[in-house]
Amino acid sequence: MNDDLMGPDDLAMLGARIDRTNELLHRMLAEVAKTPSTHAIFVDAGYLYAAAGRLVTGTEDRRAFDLDAEGLIEALIDKARSIFADSRLLRVYWYDGARRRIHTAEQQSIAELPDVKVRLGNLNANNQQKGVDSLIRSDLESLARHRAISDAALLGGDEDLVSAVEAAQGYGARVHLWGIEAPENRNQAEPLLWEVDSQRTLDLEFFKPYVSRRTAATYDASSATRPAREDVRFVGAQIAAKWLAERGRGAVVELLPGHPYLPGSVDQDLLVEAEGLLQYSLRGQADLRRALRDGFWEHLQAQY
């Protein structure tokens, strides 16, 4: 608009509008300044167990070591608090795999921790996670798009996470990659390292308090009295009752179609627990192991 064509009243009105706009901008900036930054922690449990297990105990086999998830999560929260000093925690997202997405007892206990959200992908027959990366991307992108977080600490190493990082960054969030010290070579994909806003490696001393190798119980079958088949069958039923109480009837429904076979992880846990109760090794005792499985199955089937 040409100022020569504007009268004094028009100029005054224009000036008032500009002042009003400036006032609104100042208020908006003041509100933004008062709003604290928010961060979240995203943990790929598959990477965590494999890398931390190898670092501390020399093996990636989850059955060979124990992880104090509650203590470790607290340590991760404290680490984030020291890095993002002027930011508040939204929550910790814990991504893991489970057969048919049914929580294990361990995963359930983690889900019950304060400020922790457990998200499950599938676990295939080779114990490989499927769908976890897409869950991480979905959460990262959604939280960044809705301005729910300004910073994301991502503990992972898979190249497939690159798209998750790009999606979050596209909405203005900063993504900070946390890794686990590798005894040899590197356990994080280079394209992922290139894409993130910062990198940090957590070392052996960080994980030592939370990862410990399991002590394998040994039983001398030659000096112990061999249990009767009915005793072993009864122990199988006892363990089934405990298993049912921990996992619920829904887990039984998922298990029944596989009868008379048990998934490898369930069968292994059944064997270890039975040996502890019997104080007798069932290795190489095919007839007693069949009795153990029979007792386990009979109790579960009796519930339906």
From TrEMBL:
Domain NYN: 40-189
Pfam families: NYN (PF01936)
Source organism, top-level taxon: Bacteria
GO MF, any single term: RNA nuclease activity
Name of this protein: NYN domain-containing protein
